[in-house]
Amino acid sequence: MTAPSTPAAGIPVAEAAGPAAPPSRPPAVERAVAGYLDHLAVERGLAPNTLAAYRRDLSRYLGHLTTRGIDDVAAVREADVSDFLAAIRTGDDGGSPLSATSAARTVVAVRGFHKFLLLEGATPDDPAGRVQPPQTPKRLPKAISVADVERLLGATSTETVAGRRDRALLEVLYGCGARISEAVGLAADDIDPVAGLVRLHGKGSKQRVVPLGSYALAAVEAYRVRSRPMLAARGRGLPVLFLNARGGPLSRQSAWAVLATAADRAGLTGRVSPHTLRHSFATHLLEGGADVRVVQELLGHASVATTQVYTRVTADTLREVYAASHPRALR
Which fold has domain 146-324? Predict the structure, then answer.
């Protein structure tokens, strides 16, 4: 008869046969942040880049709370949030010091997080409600003149496959004030040449339909007929409008390079970005007499306050014209 086996020396029987310890749950504050990020992604539909920025900012905030021994959102006080703002400006929390603009963005993320918790009933109050983001300087959008825009657009050859694509891309960016991500994200059927309209897929999965001028429509049509089929034959027949040399989607980086090359050929000094064309689109509309709320809709701004910064540009232009033209302008 075989003798029953015995546990190894020094290991109690109960421990040898007992179940493994369950994994520890993350602190309540981490679970709350994860829940808020899920809310932003699913219910508010934030764009991936915006969501990534929220995640970075709230991760730094979590680190700040951890160093203070706070693992429950209900334990956060206004002083904790205020001290976090001071720490990210100086780098005292171990991270890189943030500019006023970056710090303001981070505080907005923290305020949104605590407001969400209050509305969900997870906390009895909002400790971040009275913490104000730092004041950021009002920067006027940089725009180039109509003449410079024409030089820029004319600097791209329309005699090559890639040149017709590049000209169409630049015409679309200026012709409807599209963001670079909106332009490269266009599908071939997002442009209606008969109605003269383009459907743009903006931030937060929002769409808007805006007019596209005759110059842009002609450039897009020339590209679609004479260049795009050749590019598409090199790839997998993707529905996107702007294709690269291998038939794949044109990336944002490649679109930037198209603009930089055209600006260099046109002899434009200073930094010219895709947003430069967007700013120029808005500025030229307002200088031409367009209503600011119409420009707001064209740009896809959620608030007219965002669009109103362009009115400063036109006010400066009016001031210059007045000073140069009015007989009693000089003092």
Answer: hpI Integrase; Chain A (1.10.443)
